Amino acid sequence: xxxxxxxxxxxxxxxxxxxxxxxxxxxxxxxxxxxxxxxxxxxxxxxxxxxxxxxxxxxxxxxxxxxxxxxxxxxxxxxxxxxxxxxxxxxxxxxxxxxxxxxxxxxxxxxxxxxxxxxxxxxxxxxxx
Length: 129
Description:
With 129 residues, this protein is an all-alpha fold. It has six helices and no strands. The protein has helices at residues 10-32, 48-60, 78-88, 92-95, 100-112, 120-128. The longest helix has 23 residues, at 10-32. The chain starts with 9 loop residues before the first helix and ends with a helix.
């Protein structure tokens, strides 16, 4: 006599995948974020913007002197803080801090690098060949 096989319930696997995928993605993001805690007590020697301008000046053969004066955050005018925030993200007030449209576009761009691309010449030569 043949024993009836136990039917597996695929919804359990789908549920596990649906729960574990966001957990894994969140954990990956949190574990790969840079540690910025040192910026609370120590000012950076330079910023990415400063290094960019230095490189630009070096390419043009112009000397560049960096002058900087660190100011406490409370001494920076509120309007300037607001201007910087808006410059960084013009849609800040509409998305309340998380711009899902921008995240979606970024993911699209990033995923395009993962998809293998077939050169146009290969496609046309196979059709004509």
